[in-house]
Design goal:
Layout (H helix, E strand, L loop, with lengths): L1 H17 L13 E11 L2 E13 L6 E5 L8 E7 L2 E9 L2 E10 L2 E10 L3 E11 L1
Antiparallel strand pairs: 1-2, 1-8, 2-3, 3-4, 4-5, 5-6, 6-7, 7-8
Length: 133
């Protein structure tokens, strides 16, 4: 009887463990290198640029990614918080540029909107379309 109960309990434990969901890190969908087409609007003018960015997982927070080379500036590594297929870039300052924004992932492409405030120069709006390489 004890042997039978042991095997029943063991079978139940195995069934419970095998039903456990595999939890995927949503940030995995973002990691990689992207080719960016940038449109900057400032003082009524529109300026276009192209460059690459890379995205890595933040080691500081389990929901954050780091966007390296944002706005085509190698020294800008902006932190963004991921929530499924969207992310938020909270206000951050790099030298004399403050920026914040949001973005959305659709398959292997990203759309990112950024408001940049340049000390003494005003504001610029950026719309980035990025495709994973």
């Amino acid at each position: 009887m004890k042997t039978r109960l042991f095997f029943v309990a063991l079978a139940m434990c195995l069934a419970f463990v095998s039903c456990k969901k595999d939890e995927k890190d949503a940030r995995d969908n973002y990691v990689g290198t992207y080719r960016v087409d940038e449109k900057m609007t400032v003082d009524g003018g529109i300026y276009l640029d192209n460059y690459n960015i890379s995205i890595t997982k933040s080691s500081a927070n389990g929901t954050d990614i780091v966007i390296n080379g944002l706005l085509g500036v190698p020294s800008i590594s902006a932190v963004a918080s991921v929530n499924g297929d969207s992310f938020t870039i909270p206000q951050q300052t790099f030298s004399d540029v403050g920026l914040s924004g949001s973005g959305r992932r659709n398959g292997n492409s990203l759309t990112i909107y950024i408001l940049a405030t340049i000390t003494g120069s005003g504001q610029a709006n950026f719309e980035l379309s990025a495709m994973k390489l």
